[in-house]
Specification:
- The protein has 46 helices and 35 strands.
- By secondary structure, it is α/β, with parallel strands linked by helices.
- An 8-stranded mixed sheet has the order 1-4-5-3-6-7-2-8, with helices on both faces. A 6-stranded parallel sheet has the order 9-14-13-10-12-11, with helices on both faces. Strands 21, 22, 23, 24, 25 and 26 form a 6-stranded antiparallel sheet that branches.
- Strand 21 (706-712) and strand 22 (715-722) form a beta hairpin.
- It is elongated and about 135 Å long.
- 43% of the residues are buried.
């Protein structure tokens, strides 16, 4: 069985092949001994590296899982480092049949997604994760300690001080003993200290609430499987003061870094310190290589073109350059202040850039081992002495940059070539720049796997490789740098666990301290083992303190008096826990969520004080100043004082609602059902992609039938009879107006009721046969169209009986004259089943007449011969064709099989009487073989419109049922019908336009509510909550909750198979007196969220924001209730108009602010701190306001634009460059900006001329080519929000102001605007027919794995490129735009007409399979062609396509019929 779980962003589920016991491993006796001890109590298993501790944990996992007490609980396996998650998870999954989840997120990712955490725990048996992640889970009450059956700590010696392991156990001890899980710890060395061993061991036992155990009964077997290497000390001479043979001057001698401005972010002192460290340990070449590589990396990162400079450069080169001119390609983006340094580095490049084996070596020098330190030379000797064909080794170093440089040096040494293949292995944490930074997780995983597979035989590793990672037993392990503690000694030595292995400790000859340190560790190890084997140390109780030697001077040590005063806070409603150790992290996490731009540093709490700490929160938190500063109690240490004040601050912020009941930011406390946290909503993953639903339906039969009179163009013609009282309805189609009136009960005589019902069935069936569809109806009809008694709503049964006596017409032509022309239906026995309309009686022609020139019968001598030719095709049919009498001229009356109609007032009906290419010539038939259908013209015309009328009536009835069933406000019928009609119905309208409008209104209504409900939430928290409130998952959950699917219309428009029949499983099928007003349908589940937004849009169109709020309240959305905003949020009575300094701005806006503080807030950047607020919260609200204003404008201006066109136009107007253009060109907002950041001010001032020189059309069409500082567009949105609030939420006034400000942009928008460059290029390519185009992608920097460069290649010719930008999408946009212009230019050497011959080649695509959308890659010719075709299909008009398909469906029979009658 394969177990899957949708948690790709932060979890990997390990598949299990079956439910057997997994791969069987037989435990050794000493492993069984430890396993039995672990069953009896909590234990810490101390066993050597490679002795099988993880197997013991697997035995324990299986045993615990089978216990009755483990029911509905999980097993948690904790590891100290991320790489161990995958390793241990795979091992457990391989050797058990349990569901194993690998949780490999970083500390914060996914921490707020409660629903996913709940699913993860409920669908897993074992979870492998880091201690920090599990601590987050417990802290925020995603899971409880009482729901864990077994808690395993891998490398449990980390459980000291404030490590997450220790804090997890603090929560463990707070649980009642009966609810605590079993604990199992594993380590190769239980103590780091070589001095205070007893205290350290006792402290570990206390922290893990466990007893240290090791092998005691099976020592001989244990010794066989835990071999120890031969330990040797290898001394090396001290480094020389000068490397005389080194041929070139050092880089430092060529450049004075003290002259570089401090604004250049390069830590010169740190680089110099690392340079000297590298020089001492590795030698002059290594130090120079480090400096060269680190500076190149840092300068490359600093010199990447950003923002204004990049966009300006790209515009000049690719937009403003003549087609026939080649854009100049810059030699590189260099910072002027570093020009001299770059020149120096360029000189050194040939010396340091390593040329791999097999390439041409043009460098006029060869690497010499004498350039390396004696320490490196000694290492080379050690490796040569130890080498065997199966060689594996690890060299442990202390620092990351040493690992990288040493790995590079060893690869250059001639003596090692062909025998040693090495790579560095360092940790991936931290954000340090340069070559001292962390290693990407994927690269680390690849190196570890290559080492296991033998592709690499030597690792240069930092302490990350000391513990946990599963490496093969090494022939040699070298401690290149000094060991720091007992754990490092034991675990690094454990990597050399073969009987013939060697553990080498490298020590400088004159450094006796290093030798003494090593000997101390070596001599004390047996004593430590004796202590825990014999139990010869005193265990500590939880309340006892004690501090070991290594803690004596540690700032992490907590004095017993401070420990006794520590508080612990538990949220009663959820069980979320706050402790001293967690508080600092929670404050940091809260502040990290505060949005910041390139000119705002990441916000952090600031702590001050020594033994009594004060914390100051960032002023960008939207709190009153008194809630931004907290003072803590006095403590005995600085760290404890910091923890205490953080604890106090988090408690206070929780009380303010800044932290929620799970101690998470960005969540509101559930104060009412409507405001329930969306994350707490039921999971909707169980909803299938295609749902079988029951939809309300008016067409039914019952004990009572109701008659509804129908008038055609003011004349009452017939009645619609069904078992439901239908609402009045009106339908306009092709100039004909149908009006259906109110219902009246049909009266039957009891003994005749059955016959009367049957009569209506037969009459309606006959009318449908003549005018709608000749296909038989296998089920009884559920509604009827019948004539009515004059001046009454009762059915005219006598007229029905009269017509049914001659269902296919009569041959009595007596009295037929010109008055019957164009008003009479006829049928000829040679064309039975095909209705015709009489045009005239041709007394001048007989069957023996010669056919008229140009007629259908041309080519035959007589009409009679033509008829005989037609009848010849009908096998087994004998029809006698008369030879005398007049002919009748008729035209074919195509059956009307469509239900489609248009909603008023957008009546753009489609003429479906004759499809293009149909033969419009009349038919001529003998009168003697032609019958007259005696149904009145009004009646048979009404039958033709009957399907459309029923569709219209059904839509109105279903919309009004939805209004009642969902408790909706009085939304206009047409708007609600449109909102509940799915695209799958292929009607003349659907909900996609309203869904696009409703999406904007949903965002606005949610934003206003959240903005006011959570005044202490910053923009990041508000945005997070808004995203969850309007997410598809939330909308789908609410839709399922209210039963929205019961009111959706998905029925198709073609009714060749009549839809309004009694269903097979309807009770009316067995008993017509029983009614059933529902039908079964199938709909896609994503239709639910679309309809939710469409209904909001329908309410907004019907009654503005007030009705949209009522809709939101009815369907359970997070709108804050139905009360209008101006009543819910009355303006402040403290009126203080804006001063004269803002007169120019207010004149430009056409609005005078009554509350100056709002305008001040809207114009204040977070960098400007004067005790007030910044614009960020207002920008959150203004973004939604602008979005809604623009979408409303587009919706009304372009009634025929489809959803995709509306969304595209909105994106054109509501984007940073366009809004910045409005802010500068229309309002001059940059003149009023309050900011305290010189770089920000300079960036804004630099971009203003660009915006002022750009036209409104250019900014709309080329917004993708602009990147102004975000603050310019932000303050426009914040000012818009300020107007809305200041005006007392006067939406109409705000809309007018925004539209006026944006008019110069809005008037340019049109569905006919060309698409953005990439789409435009794809569209043009698809239409051109060229199949040999691709976008080649690469990286401009060899050390970077991120592509940032694009070339456009057509028929193997580079048309444009390489185009390099800070991001790949920007590069693709400029390259695509330039390529399209060049390829279209006929006078260009690279014009498509010159280089493309695709149209000349015939390509067989009959056997080609369509490319899956998720595998399309435009970097290949096939992928580009597929992407271009997809773009072409996306931009085609889906509404027009549906109408064309509908026409084809209606006329397909007509085409066939006409073809069979052609001469």
């Amino acid at each position: 069985m394969t177990f899957t779980f949708d948690s790709s962003s932060f979890c990997t589920m390990v598949p299990v092949s079956d439910l057997s016991s997994g791969d069987v491993l037989v435990p050794r006796q000493y492993q069984q001994e430890i396993f039995l001890k672990a069953q009896q109590r909590n234990v810490i298993a101390v066993l050597d590296t490679g002795s099988g501790k993880t197997l013991i944990s697997v035995l324990l996992i299986k045993w615990v899982f089978r216990q009755e007490s483990s029911k509905n609980k999980v097993i948690v396996f904790l590891v100290p480092k991320v790489p161990l998650v995958e390793q241990q998870g795979k091992f457990i999954a391989q050797h058990t049949a349990l569901r194993v989840a690998q949780v490999h997120s970083d500390v914060s990712a996914g921490v707020m997604d409660r629903a996913r955490w709940s699913n993860l725990f409920s669908q897993s048996d074992v979870l492998v994760m880091t201690g920090q992640i599990f601590l987050n889970v417990l802290t925020h009450s995603h899971w409880g300690m009482n729901r864990v059956s077994l808690l395993i700590f891998d490398e449990c010696h980390h459980a000291h001080k404030n490590h997450p392991y220790t804090t997890v156990m603090t929560i463990y001890r707070a649980c009642p003993e009966s609810d605590r899980p079993k604990v199992f710890g594993m380590t190769a060395c239980p103590t780091r200290s070589s001095n205070a061993q007893q205290t350290s061991l006792a402290s570990l036992e206390k922290n893990l609430n466990s007893k240290i155990v090791t092998v005691q009964e099976h020592l001989d077997e244990f010794a066989r499987y835990s071999s120890k290497p031969t330990e040797i000390i290898r001394k090396f001479p001290p480094p020389p003061s000068v490397y005389l043979e080194y041929p070139i001057p050092p880089i430092w001698s060529r450049f004075d870094y003290s002259q570089v401005p401090a604004s250049i972010d390069i830590p010169w002192q740190q680089l110099n310190s690392r340079y000297l460290y590298t020089l001492e340990n590795l030698g002059i070449f290594a130090a120079e290589l480090f400096l060269y590589s680190d500076l190149q990396t840092r300068i490359s990162e600093l010199a990447q073109p950003q923002g204004v400079n990049e966009m300006e450069s790209l515009r000049v080169r690719y937009l403003y350059t003549d087609v026939l001119s080649e854009p100049s390609i810059p030699t590189g983006h260099r910072i002027p202040e570093l020009h001299d340094l770059c020149e120096v580095l360029d000189e050194y490049q040939p010396f340091f850039e390593y040329v791999p084996d097999g390439q041409d070596e043009s460098v006029p020098w060869s690497f010499r081992l004498s350039w390396c330190s004696p320490k490196v030379q000694t290492l080379v000797e050690i490796l040569l002495e130890s080498y065997t064909p199966e060689f594996h080794g690890i060299v442990f170093v202390a620092r990351r940059h040493i690992a990288r440089v040493l790995s590079s040096i060893l690869s250059r040494i001639t003596l090692l070539k062909g025998i040693i293949t090495c790579a560095e292995c360092v940790g991936h944490g931290g954000d340090e720049k340069g070559i001292g930074g962390g290693m990407p997780t994927e690269r680390q995983r690849k190196i570890v796997n290559d080492f296991r597979d033998g592709k690499i035989n030597l690792l240069i590793a930092t302490p990350v490789a000391e513990e946990g990672l599963d490496f093969p037993a090494c022939d040699i392990t070298v401690r290149f740098d000094a060991m720091q503690d007992m754990v490092g000694y034991v675990q690094s030595r454990g990597r050399a666990r073969r009987a013939t292995s060697t553990f080498v400790v490298m020590v400088q000859q004159n450094k006796t301290s290093e030798i003494e340190s090593y000997r101390s560790l070596s001599e004390r190890e047996p004593h430590i083992k004796n202590l825990y084997q014999s139990g010869g140390f005193k265990s500590l109780s939880v309340s006892e303190g004690g501090k070991s030697d290594d803690e004596e001077d540690s700032s992490d040590y907590v004095y017993p008096t401070d420990l006794a005063k520590r508080e612990r806070f538990v949220v009663p409603s959820t069980g979320a826990i706050l402790t001293y150790n967690m508080a600092i992290g929670l404050l940091g996490h809260l502040c990290a969520l505060i949005p910041c731009d390139a000119f705002t540093r990441v916000q952090k709490p600031r702590y001050s004080g020594v033994f009594a700490s004060t914390v100051r929160l960032p002023p960008t938190l939207p709190l009153h100043p008194e809630y931004l500063v907290y003072e803590g109690p006095p403590k005995h240490s600085k760290k404890e004082a910091k923890r205490a004040v953080a604890f106090k601050a988090v408690k206070a912020l929780y009380a303010l609602g800044v932290f929620d009941d799970n101690l998470l930011p960005a969540h509101g406390k559930a104060e009412a059902k409507i405001d329930k946290d969306p994350d707490e909503a039921d999971n909707v993953t169980h909803v299938p992609e295609i749902m079988d639903v029951v939809v309300v339906n008016p067409w039914s039969l019952g004990s009572e039938l109701w008659s509804h009179p129908v008038s055609m163009d003011g004349k009452r013609v017939a009645g619609v009879i069904t078992g439901t009282q239908l609402p009045p309805a009106e339908l306009v189609w092709e100039g004909t107006t149908l009006i259906m009136g109110g219902a009246e009960l049909v009266h039957f005589d009891t003994h005749e009721e059955y016959q009367k019902r049957k009569l209506m069935q037969e009459y309606t069936d006959l009318g449908l046969w003549w005018r709608v569809s000749a296909r038989p109806r296998p089920a009884p009809l559920s509604c009827f169209l019948v004539p009515l008694v004059p001046n009454s709503c009762q059915p005219d049964f006598q007229a029905m009986e009269h017509l049914l006596t001659q269902p296919y017409g009569n041959s009595d032509w007596v009295g037929m004259d010109e008055r019957a022309y164009d008003h009479t239906l006829v049928m000829n026995n040679m064309q039975h089943g095909r209705p015709f309309l009489l045009q005239k009686i041709r007394f001048d022609l007989t069957p023996l007449s010669e056919p008229l020139a140009g007629s259908r019968e041309t080519g035959f001598q007589t009409y009679w011969q033509h008829y005989q030719w037609l009848l010849r095709k009908r096998k087994g049919c004998t029809i006698e064709v008369p030879t005398d009498g007049p002919l009748v001229e008729v035209v074919l009356m195509p059956r009307q099989t469509s239900r489609a109609y248009q909603l008023l007032p957008r009546d753009t009906s489609v003429d479906v009487d004759m499809a293009p290419g149909d033969d419009a010539r009349p038919f001529l038939f003998p009168m003697a073989s032609t019958s007259i259908f005696s149904m009145s013209e009004e009646m048979f015309s009404l039958f033709a419109l009957f399907p459309r009328l029923l569709h219209r009536v059904q839509d109105i009835w279903r919309a009004r049922s939805a209004r009642i069933g969902l408790d909706l406000p009085p939304i206009l019928d047409d708007h609600l019908i449109e909102a509940t009609t799915l695209p799958a119905a292929a009607a003349c309208f659907n909900n996609q336009r309203l869904e696009t409008l409703g999406d904007s209104v949903l965002k606005l209504c949610t934003s206003v509510h959240l903005y006011n409900k959570f005044p202490h939430y910053h923009e990041g928290q508000l945005d997070n909550l808004r995203q969850r409130s309007i997410s598809n998952r939330t909308l789908m959950f609410r839709a399922k909750t209210i039963g929205l699917e019961h009111y959706l219309s998905v029925e198709g428009q073609n009714v060749k198979t009549w839809p309004t029949v009694v269903a097979d499983d309807s009770p009316s099928r067995q008993d017509w007196a029983r009614s059933d007003r529902s039908v079964k349908r199938r709909i896609a589940r994503r239709s639910l969220q679309d309809c939710m937004e469409a209904i909001i849009g329908a309410g907004y169109l019907s009654g503005g924001i007030p009705m949209a709020l009522q809709v939101g309240a009815a369907i359970g959305l997070n709108f804050g209730g139905p009360v209008p905003w101006h009543l819910r949020y009355p303006p402040s009575s403290n009126v203080q108009p804006a001063g004269v300094g803002y007169a120019k701005l207010q004149d430009a806006l056409g609005y005078d602010f009554q509350h100056a503080e709002l305008l001040q807030e809207a114009l204040t950047h977070p960098s400007f701190w004067s005790g007030g607020k910044s614009y960020q919260r207002l920008e959150f609200l203004g973004d939604a306001v602008v979005d809604t204003v623009v979408m409303t404008y587009l919706f009304k201006k372009f009634p025929h634009a489809n959803s995709g066109q509306l969304s595209s136009l909105r994106a054109r107007a509501v984007c940073g460059p366009v809004l910045a253009f409005i802010a500068v060109r229309v309002l001059s907002l940059h003149e009023f900006l309050w900011a305290d950041n010189p770089e920000l001010t300079a960036a804004v001032e630099k971009y203003i001329p660009t915006l002022e020189a750009t036209s409104s059309r250019a900014i709309v069409l080329q917004s993708w080519a602009h990147d102004p500082p975000k603050i310019i567009s932000d303050i426009f949105e914040s000012v818009v929000a300020a107007i809305l609030i200041d005006s007392g939420y006067n939406v109409e006034k705000t809309v007018c102001i925004v539209e006026a400000a944006m008019q110069c942009v809005l008037e340019i928008l049109s569905p006919d605007l060309p698409p953005e460059p990439i789409s435009a290029f794809f569209l043009w390519a698809a239409k051109s027919g060229c199949k040999r185009i691709l976008l080649s992608k690469s990286s401009s920097r060899p050390e970077s794995k991120q592509n940032d460069t694009v070339c456009v290649v057509v028929h193997d010719t580079i048309v444009v490129g390489p185009v390099t930008a800070s991001s790949l999408p920007v590069a693709r946009a400029f390259a695509s735009e330039r390529a399209r212009v060049i390829l279209q230019a006929e006078d260009s050497d690279k014009a498509l007409v010159r280089i493309c011959d695709c149209k000349e080649q015939v390509v067989d695509t009959s056997q080609a399979e369509p490319t899956p959308h998720d595998t399309i890659d435009d970097a290949t010719e096939t992928g580009f062609a597929a992407a271009a075709q997809m773009e072409l299909e996306k931009f085609s008009d889906p509404q027009q396509e549906r109408q064309e398909e509908d026409i084809d469906g209606e006329e397909s029979r007509t085409h066939d019929e006409l073809e069979t009658t052609g001469a």
